[in-house]
Amino acid sequence: MKSRLHIESLPTPGFQIAPMIDVVFVIMLFFMVMAGLQRKEGELGLRLPDGSLFPANLKMPDEELLLELTSDGSVMLNGEHFDTPSSSKLPELRRALRRVQLAVSAQHSKVLATVHSEPEAGFQRVMDVLDALHVAGITYVTFEVETASP
Q: How confident is the model over 122-131, as a mean pLDDT?
């Protein structure tokens, strides 16, 4: 008698979902942990300057500019009004600052711009003035801080 080889048919391989679910859970766990490690902007420490931070013998630049921002949005440079309160690009102020920067650079000096803003002036207006200073090439900028009255 002939011996018959009996070959069992193997089941067709299928897609196994359990390992895929494990991988998804590991990836989800990784992203959840990493999201918790990011620093939020509100958590960054910010210390505003006060008079005690600077030594008494600090050498100041030769030219000083005072930029004042009022509550209605108008901008003054050393007491002179520039542009309208609604002007966000501040073209007159930019031209004046550029002239000052060019004159001072020709003398090999430095310019210090001090920004004094009334609390109601708004942050966007301060940013407009900082942008005008940047465009003019003035890099030494400080903010004037009002001290509390006793």
A: 89
What CATH number belongs to 61-143?
Answer: 3.30.420.270
Average pLDDT in the chain: 80
Cβ partners under 8 Å of residue 78, min gap 6: 65, 66
Question: Model pTM?
Answer: 0.57
- CA dist 87 → 69, 141, 149 (Å): 13, 22, 34
The pLDDT assigned to 26 comes to 94
List the domain boundaries for the chain.
61-143
Distance CA 103, CA 63 (A): 10
Half-sphere exposure in the Cβ direction for 14 (13 Å, CA): 4
Q: How far apart are CA 88 and CA 129, in angstroms?
A: 9
Give the 3-state secondary structure of 10-42. CCCCCCCHHHHHHHHHHHHHHHHHHHHHCCCHH
pLDDT value, residue 60: 46
- Closest to 120 measured CA to CA, from 66, 72, 48, 84: 72
More confident residue, 36 or 50: 36
